[in-house]
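Sample entry (84 residues):
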Amino acid sequence: MKIWAIFKKEMRLYFTSPVAWVVFTIFLLIAGYFFYSIFAFFTLASMQSAMNPSDGPRPERDRQRHASAVLEHQRASCSCSCRW
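Predicted structure, serialized as tokens:
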């Protein structure tokens, strides 16, 4: 029980001094800056991914690229032992 009384007394004395309010204000400004910068970064990343849906995986595009690569290989005179 003595610890609780000491804690209450220390907190009361700490928050009645102007130094505590200055430290508290500086802490809140720094924490707010970091929160805003992280929030703004993820908002920007989210908006960019929403505006560029073509950057995601597209299997039909990959199949077309593979098919065109196979056709180019068939047309070229290759010296490999593949049989198309």
